[in-house]
């Protein structure tokens, strides 16, 4: 997917205005985050809500419909877009839960423990933050790959080096043997690859969370810490 160097707030405005490409990109970017939060929130007592896919779709519809949540999004909201999306998903989930609880009451079924769900919100917010961090890392990896394609073969090789190191969990010495290069030189390339990824991450974070360089750096550090 091509990386568009526009802030997520531009994406939101375009999606709210009905732009088909922006709506598609919104869904691709943020569906995994929404799904992770709802799956954790509705584990156990809320299995009776039905298919998780339907619930995720409800959230997306609520965000993207005319007069929906995206129309009310504001770039000056504290916490940036992450805070907006968290609040949006949580509010939609609470409405679904209330509706389901009323239905259970009418049908004389066992009550749903809404208080128990609310009481676990701290843990759920951590699930959301971790899913958000993973989504941002995916965007950063895409951005690094795009930049590498412009820079040439050596840069693309460094992208592959990171993939082997983190996705395949191969030690640097094994990658060096696989590629037929000496280990110290590959360690140097590995350090450079990590720097390039950090630069791509800073670009992506700046799109989601505009601010001074030190604010972007702090947000990057927080996101990385969520995945440790």
The name of the CATH topology of the largest domain is Rna Polymerase Sigma Factor, Chain: A
The overall average pLDDT, rounded, is 83
Instruction: Identify the CATH class of the largest domain.
Output: Mainly Alpha
Q: Which stretches of 5+ consecutive residues score pLDDT under 50?
A: 1-5
- The outline comes out as elongated
Q: Based on DSSP secondary structure assignment, what is the total number of beta strands?
A: 0
Sheet-strand content, in percent, reads under 5%
CATH architecture of the largest domain: Orthogonal Bundle
- Please compute the radius of gyration using only Cα atoms: 21 Å
State the end-to-end distance: 27 Å
| Classification by helices and strands | mainly alpha
* Order of helix and strand elements from N to C terminus: HHHHHHHHHH
- CATH homologous superfamily of the largest domain? RNA polymerase sigma factor, region 2, helix turn helix motif
The count of helical stretches stands at 10
How many domain regions?
Answer: 2
Q: Can you summarize the main beta sheet?
A: none
How much helicity do the residues have?
Answer: over 70%
């Amino acid at each position: 997917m091509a990386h568009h160097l526009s802030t997520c707030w531009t994406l939101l405005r375009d999606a709210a205005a009905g732009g088909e490409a922006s709506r598609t990109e919104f869904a691709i970017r943020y569906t995994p985050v929404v799904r992770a939060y709802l799956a954790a929130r509705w584990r156990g007592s809320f299995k009776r809500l039905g298919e998780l896919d339907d619930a995720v779709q409800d959230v997306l519809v609520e965000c993207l419909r005319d007069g929906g949540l995206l129309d009310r999004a504001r770039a000056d909201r504290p916490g940036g877009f992450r805070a907006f999306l968290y609040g949006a998903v949580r509010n939609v989930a609470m409405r679904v839960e209330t509706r389901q609880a009323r239905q259970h009451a009418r049908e004389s079924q066992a009550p749903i423990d809404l208080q128990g769900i609310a009481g676990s919100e701290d843990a759920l917010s951590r699930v959301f933050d971790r899913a958000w961090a993973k989504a941002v890392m995916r965007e950063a990896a895409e951005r690094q790959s795009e930049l590498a394609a412009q820079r040439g073969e050596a840069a693309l090789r460094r992208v592959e080096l990171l993939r082997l190191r983190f996705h395949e969990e191969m030690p640097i010495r094994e990658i060096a043997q696989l590629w037929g290069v000496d280990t110290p030189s590959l360690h140097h390339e590995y350090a450079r690859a990590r720097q390039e990824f950090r630069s791509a991450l800073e670009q992506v974070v700046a799109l989601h969370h505009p601010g001074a360089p030190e604010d972007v750096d702090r947000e990057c550090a927080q996101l990385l810490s969520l995945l440790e």
